[in-house]
Amino acid sequence: MPQVTLTVNGKTHTVEVEGRTLLVELLREKLRLTGTHVGCDTSQCGACVVHIDGNSVKSCTTLAVMADGASVTTIEGLAAADGTLHPMQEAFREYHALQCGFCTPGMVMSAVDLVAKNPQGLSEQEIREGLEGNLCRCTGYHNIVKAIAAAQDVMHGKRTSIAAAAE
Amino acid sequence: MNVVTPFEGIGASVRRKEDVRFLSGRGQYTDDINRPGQAHAWILRSQHAHARIQGIDTAAAAAMPGVVAIYTSADLAAIGGLPCGWQIHNKDGSPMAEPKHPVLAEGKVRHVGDPIAVVIAETRAQARDAAEAIIVDFEVLPAVSQTTAALAADAPRVHDDVAGNLCYDWHIGDKGAVDAAFAAAAHRVVFETTNQRLVPNAMEPRCAVGDYDTTTGEHTLFTTSQNPHVIRLLMGAFVLQIPEAKLRVVAPDVGGGFGSKIYHYAEEAIVTWAAAKLGRAVKWTADRTEAFMSDAHGRDHVTRAELALDKEGTFLGLRVLTHANMGAYLSTFAPCVPTYLYATLLAGVYSTPAIYAEVKAVFTHTVPVDAYRGAGRPEATYLLERLVDVAAKQCGFDRVKLRRRNFIATDAFPYQTPVALQYDSGDYFSTLDQALKTADWAGFEARRAEARMRGKLRGIGISTYLEACGIAPSAVVGSLGARAGLYEVGVIRVHPTGSVTVLTGAHSHGQGHETTFAQLVADKLGVPIANVDIVHGDTAKVPFGMGTYGSRSLAVGGSAMDKAMDKIIAKAKRIAAHLMEASVEDVEFERGTFRVAGTDKTKTLTDVSLAAYVPHNYPIDEIEPGLEETAFYDPKNFTYPGGCHIAEVEIEMETGRVSMVNFTAVDDVGRVINPMIVEGQVQGGVAQGIGQALLEACVYDQDGQLMSGSMMDYTMPRADDLAPVSVATHTTLCTHNPLGVKGCGEVGAIGSPPAVINAVVDALRDYGVEHIEMPATAPKIWSIIHGKSV
What is the ipTM score, two decimals? Predict the structure, then answer.
């Protein structure tokens, strides 16, 4: 069986996988990082989004072997080591941008990449379009859009905290 | 010390306690649970809608790598079928047809997705590989998938012993009074519509893990359920014959339900049974494709309605005939959806004096249909609110004035409808007025004209709705055919140092109970929510519960908690009286402090709880130690949330695409505990309602093949399909539960679809359109605008 060596949330792992093993299966089943979810089988829902070398990727449509040598960040690796939430996580909490929490890890990872790739800032409509690859059945998205708008201000240094952005 | 600052009680938009867990990937959903030595199950499902199984050859599959066992119905001969929890009676008093719903297909498959065999292997991939190697010899039979076609004389039978595929033929109301009303009417309006089949699509696919302790004989099932105690009851008593004491059902974090995770499903029984048979844990997790063909679907009604009005527009009578599609088998609560959750709602917010409804439920070769967010009430609301708009247009009435004219008067409560329900409270005039103002209804024509300048067709639509929540008085639903009670259970455990654990039979799968329920405790007992732990979803921890659906958690489960807190306070007052050497009648309690009335003598709840658990100075002969109370709360009536939704849309003429531009919801959900969560529930419900109105449809072809069987084929609403929703509340209190609450989980999905379709029809008013069926997709609208079919 092929061997994959990859760094996940700063820690290096070498794992034996089948050729057909998906990255999400490696994360969930081999590394027991169950924060990354699987919500569909057609690459529509985005619950499985992680970052590979800084880019958001659907880990349900990525073979584990494709991540050989890569650096992967999952939702478990987003907060600071002391547990301080990333501004995007904080914004989701502040704006009630999650209900059942199942789409949330993928939604947050997509949102972080969307904001990071758009330092010029995003309009509400651009945020909505940027969430094309992520489904949420609970919230109706409105609070997610508000949370991302608030988080981008903090991530781009325009506000000091989510609380400040909320005011 | 228990000090509540800032205010965390009733009415505070407290941020959710559960969020940090979910935001850091530390939620624990069923598929995140792995048991030592666990094997994996894959279910082989039918690709045919209707076929006779001539034989199943598992030999090649059994020899494949990692295969532990393969089971078919022959192996399950000793276990029962999946039970139905509600029995409807026909017009003649005879019971509905209730054919067996086998766990694995027996002799025939009756819908695409019907489970045939289960393969258990060391890995999921091995189980799946082996399932593909099972050879089933099918004799494919003709199938029927469409609701009305099922009753045709020559329609293929779904069950050999159910003539005409008729599950039941039921009615409610006074036919004679309605006939008389129509005879006297100045206007008679006919409206026919289909409320299309939907797929709930909670983001978390269903999952079940069975485990078995060979030393104690105890079974454990971890499952994606909205009501673990109900699953324990149904599966234990009817399917596997396992006594409650030997069967633990755990529903951990659950990723959305919307009704689809209420029901007892075959896979739960399969993994529980197989784990005991094999002496090792067995896990099954659905693919989304599997979910499409095995999760209970929603809606699927075909209806003809007639409204009689006098010449001023007063409603005189309503006559309804609905055909409801049950699918191939009866899911757990399916029969009550088109009857007691639908036809009883046909008065809506109107004082229509005479109503008669007939409902014919039919079997077809499709996935079973059951309650989906709103369950019957969206179908009733859609029918009424479209019918009122059609009547207004046909008879020349203003659609707002026509509604207002027929509203139940605000001083008419309690109001007895002609279809069984008695509404306790409501104020439809205020929610209407507030919504009209917020949406700037009066200024709409200017916006329409402005949009026309941009080449867009703009329309506005209204829906004034009512629903029934908080199901329900057990004796009443029992008399209507429910095979269960519908109370709820709450345990309040005050620990020695004054922190509180709440055990509740309600289940949270997105609703934020860990926060809202803690707020109830903060408000009444004065304990900060950080010191309140809400435990739910485990039959080994919570005494009993009927679970979460029908917006019942707060109205019924919250009321049980409130009742248990009353008992805590009553006992604690006696202890406090002893500690303060006062008479119990003189002890007052408010938010954490006991006081001897008129004095400065006080004790905190913590003083009392410590005394209760360390009873040194304690009236031990009169009061038992400890501070824990249990309450079962059985509601006296349903609750009746209502309100007004206004949708504003723009249609792009070149493509027919509908854009939501404004949506206003003013809802009366009774007392609001956490406004932030209520707003979130309404927004989410409205999104599902807009999804039904504009995007979603579960489509079967004539042969019963599922055409919309994946998220590539079934249109889920995305962020850019929706617009901001303005949410406000106008409160009248529920008069019969201690919290005055009504429920907010379903109002969004109930009120919104007709508002959206009314807006689309309004936008198309220059094209002679009287009605457009849901979903109002771009091709349908393009065809209307351009006078061509696509």
Answer: 0.98
